[in-house]
Write a structure and sequence with these properties.
By secondary structure, the protein is mainly beta. It is built from one helix and 29 strands.
Length: 354
């Protein structure tokens, strides 16, 4: 289970904020005004006093994430409407130290993985589902392998009538299991692929962040095609099938963020030394990179500016000048303002940005 990753929204965002704190004092490049009129509210404090952190937004009225009880003793996986009480899908006590990963949905189902560690520290992962129309959650399978989570919308993804995820093959770090199960439950099938891979937009795999000893590659599970990404040397490379994000892999290089096509074309600078990309997936809706830049780190909370780099229009769009947290996945971006009793979440459907 050493390669298992647990990157839920708040953890990912806090990790990015930690990276930003290590960056130079930010410059303030000009950015176009943001689409504030298109933003919508997301509840931050639930009716029972629990603090809510969205992990996935379904639409303007519904999100899916984690609620922490007011005393910090319980964590719930919840579906939260714009108004009214949340729907609790699964609960765990703080002492259990578990996590909810691979959150996703289809037209009629929610699904997720739940990880708990036993007294020996061994992680046990199960796959769960619940009908969107209501009813209790049910376990789909405990035959999960050692899944790898990278905070991607593709960590567990529906394809037709099946759910797919990637898992590390025990004892073979150079091989990956692509596992799948019928969406309503049944027998898990396993396809072993040479190399360390992460799920990307179907039918593609991409070199896992843990992969070493070679260039970043894309692998088409349907055709068997292998694509070697033509990236400059000394870069950390994260790819989708259409775009790759580049950051330096050593402190001697300028800490800028670039985008290129997998074939090495269309290189462009999208962020300077003050900015860091916060989405695990590259080029959301094939158009946007979400960047955070520290504005003020001297107070109780870190205040950051959130901008979008618009690939189609080659511009930066200011979304929030003073955010305290942010996340992005699929078609949506979300960010918070304030803290504790003033905490508020805001969402934006990236497909509506002009």
């Amino acid at each position: 289970m050493g390669r298992l990753r647990t990157w839920l929204g708040v953890g990912t965002a806090l990790a990015v904020i930690g990276l930003l704190l290590a960056l130079p004092t930010p410059r303030r490049p000009a950015a176009a005004a943001g689409p504030a009129a298109g933003a919508f509210p997301i509840p931050a404090i639930l009716p029972d006093g629990a603090t809510y952190t969205p992990t996935l937004i379904l639409d303007r009225t519904t999100s899916f994430g984690v609620a922490t009880s007011s005393g910090g003793q319980r964590t719930d996986l919840v579906v939260v409407p714009a108004t009214g009480p949340p729907r609790v899908l699964q609960s765990q006590s703080a002492t259990e130290g578990g996590s909810f990963d691979g959150l996703g949905y289809t037209a009629d189902q929610f699904y997720w993985m739940h990880t708990l560690s036993d007294s020996a520290g061994q992680a046990h992962v199960t796959l769960w589902t619940a009908r969107r129309t209501g009813g209790p959650a049910r376990q789909l399978s405990a035959d999960i392998g050692a899944p790898v989570f990278y905070g991607s919308q593709y960590d567990v993804q529906p394809v037709g009538d099946r759910l797919y995820w990637a898992a590390a093959e025990a004892g073979h770090p150079d091989r990956t299991e692509v596992r799948s199960i019928p969406r309503d439950g049944g027998t898990v099938t396993v396809q072993v692929v040479s190399g360390a891979w992460a799920m990307s937009r179907w039918p593609w795999l991409v070199s896992a962040p843990s992969a070493t000893g070679g260039p970043t590659r894309l692998h088409n599970l349907t055709t068997g095609q292998l694509v070697t990404v033509q990236a400059p040397p000394n870069k950390q490379v994260t790819c989708s099938p259409t775009w790759c994000r580049l950051i330096p892999d050593n402190a001697a290089q300028a800490t800028e963020t670039d985008l290129i096509r997998p074939d090495g074309s269309d290189l462009r600078l999208i962020g300077d030394a003050s900015a860091a990309a916060i989405a695990s997936d590259v080029a959301l809706v094939d158009r946007f990179e979400v960047l955070m830049s520290i504005v003020n780190s001297t107070g109780r909370v870190v205040i950051s500016k959130v901008t979008l780099y618009d690939i189609a229009r080659r511009r930066s769009v200011l979304i929030a000048p003073a955010a305290t947290n942010a996340g992005a996945r699929g078609d949506f971006l979300w960010w918070s303002t304030g803290d504790n009793e003033t905490l508020a979440w805001h969402g934006l459907d990236l497909r509506t940005v002009p």
